Amino acid sequence: MQNKPYVSFVSSITFYTFKMKRLFILLFALFTVSFASCQTVSTSKKDDYPGLETFLDGYYHQYYSFPVSLDELIAEIETRSSYVNPSFIDTFNITLTNLRKDKNQINWVLSDECFLNEELLVLKGEDTIMHRYNPYKFPCLGVLLNNYRYYYLDYPETIEELSAFTKVEGYVEEPSFKGCDSITMQNLFKGEERGVLTWKNDKDGLLIMANNDTVDYLPPYSPCDLSPFEKRRIVLLFDKNKTVVLSNKMEVEFKKGLYSVLKEFPFIDEKEKGNYHIMCYRQDKGLHLYCENDYLPQDPELFSTLNTFAHQFAEENNLDEIIFCVVYCCK
Predict the structure, then answer these.
(1) Is 124 helix (H, G, I), strand (E, B) or coil?
(2) Mean pLDDT of the chain
(3) Which segments of 45-202 are extended strands (E)?
(4) DSSP notation for 152-197
(5) pLDDT per residue over 98-147, tens digit each?
(6) Residue 320 CA, distance from chain mean position
(7) What ranges do the domains of the chain cover?
(8) What angle is formed at CA 69 by the lines to CA 67 and CA 71, rounded to 5 degrees?
């Protein structure tokens, strides 16, 4: 009789455990079916657009941004229909057909609230078809700034100065960056208009900020600190508007004339041999040393000959300023 309560208790526990086990199995089965069902719906909707990711990649590499609407993407795809790789043609047709058919059901959300990080979300009902980020608002900014510095020996003071440089006659965008310059400039101006972009060029270098994010930073630069090898390539021509003149023909002609002048003055001072000095000729100042702290032994005859040559070249080619490099020695 004393064991009955214990047996009863064990029996209750066993029965309760059995019921919980059955309930767990039932819930697990329901969860598995529901999860599989959800996965099937989501996957099937994504599978309706098997080429969408490829379409977006192609658009991005062309424009360095995402299309603002599904209609814009479809229009871009249609222009490329005759260039589709045969191995991709079925995927291309399925995707394009379904995008046209479902475009009223697809929600195309493009956001760039933080400006630097553009975000694209493509939804169909509650399903996410595509989610992409574009962190490259200024894909060619570094190339543009380096090119500007190469020709102006400084960084641009404003976005407008950089933009004007890309429009100089003779400026050629690198083939591998086709369209990249215009996208970069477009976004720089957009940031300026929104009041989120700051551009600061001072003794500490060039700093470009978008709100609290650093877009680009370039350290202080002076051509006077360049190596002799880097200095010797300098031949820069500027017109009456202080705009660089990009002309290979004119540059070659100047180098030939400069060589003709310098060969008449052989090296005499061994201390000066191999030292490169940046010279600047301006119509209002004549010939002078470009770098304030530069020093060279004076040779009035060579200096006068160089000044005359630079003046004549500037007059003949309607130039206001010429910056070039010489190995200056004295007799």
Answers:
(1) strand
(2) 80
(3) 106-111, 118-124, 127-134, 197-202
(4) HSS--SSHHHHHHHHTSTT----GGGTTHHHHHHHHHHHHHHHT-E
(5) 999 998 999 998 876 666 667 888 988 888 888 887 767 888 899 999 99
(6) 33
(7) 52-134, 141-221, 224-327
(8) 105
